[in-house]
Structure to design on (95 residues):
């Protein structure tokens, strides 16, 4: 399967967004296949992303492709839009 963006590049983009909007409280997610989860967490723990200012290791959550598919299926069954609470429930924090 091809991925649109490398993990590092995706996190770097989130870093730019967080730098431009440091007081924002909206959730941030990285979506990748399950095999890449550890790589996502490894990159989020890098000093450049986990520093006190950005704290991406605390605010960025991971979602697997399977979790996104599950959420999509549930949303279609409920005939309503995607609920942010579903995303937060399924997302994994850096461990």
């Amino acid at each position: 399967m091809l991925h649109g963006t490398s993990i590092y590049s995706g996190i770097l983009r989130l870093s730019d967004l967080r730098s431009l909007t440091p007081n924002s409280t909206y959730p941030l997610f990285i979506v990748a296949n399950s095999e890449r989860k550890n790589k996502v967490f490894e990159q989020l723990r890098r000093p450049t992303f986990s520093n006190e200012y950005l704290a991406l290791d605390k605010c960025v959550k991971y979602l697997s492709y399977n979790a996104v598919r599950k959420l999509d299926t549930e949303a279609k069954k409920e005939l309503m839009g995607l609920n942010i609470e579903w995303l937060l429930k399924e997302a994994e924090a850096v461990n």
Q: What stands out?
A: The mean pLDDT is 88. The longest strand covers residues 28-32.
